[in-house]
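User: Could you check the structure of this?
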Amino acid sequence: MTEKVAEKVAEKVAEKVAEKVEFASVPWVDAARNVLERLVALHCDDDTRLSVCEIFTDAPTSVSATGIAAWHFLIEGKKVLVGACEATGMDVTIRADYATALPGARLVYTPEVLARMQLQPPPDPPPQIEGDTSIFPAWLVELHNEMAVITA
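Assistant: Sure, the predicted structure tokens are below.
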């Protein structure tokens, strides 16, 4: 899919979305839960195991009164648990500055965009990643892309 086609698809999807939601807010996490439940039903089997936590510092007060916004998900087989808080013991934990992460959260990852990102330096400040992101299944980009078009 070319970048222009992907942009047009994203625009069409965004037009159908009644309302965008603030990145990493409780309504955003609720939307992510709905997307994850559908994707897990489509792509996972009984042996699937994956847990991820994302933590965003310096979040706006409209998202988090403490300035720390976090969410996590745990996939066990076809079950999905999602929370709007930090979680420990996850396979992968990502910590990033909210304002630095926001443009990427809104970006639809086409193959061209992903290839271009490989050639660019990491954002400043770069995210801190604990764990091995190579365990992420290929379909996880679908979660990102569906959330990107509704992220305010």
